[in-house]
Amino acid sequence: MERNKFVFEYGSRTYVIPGGCRSGLELYISDGLYPGRFLSYILENNLVGACNAADVENMANLPAYANYLYNHMPSNAWGSPKIVRDWIEMRIAEKGDQNGT
Question: Is the Cβ–Cβ distance between 62 and 50 less than 8 Å?
Answer without folding.
Answer: yes
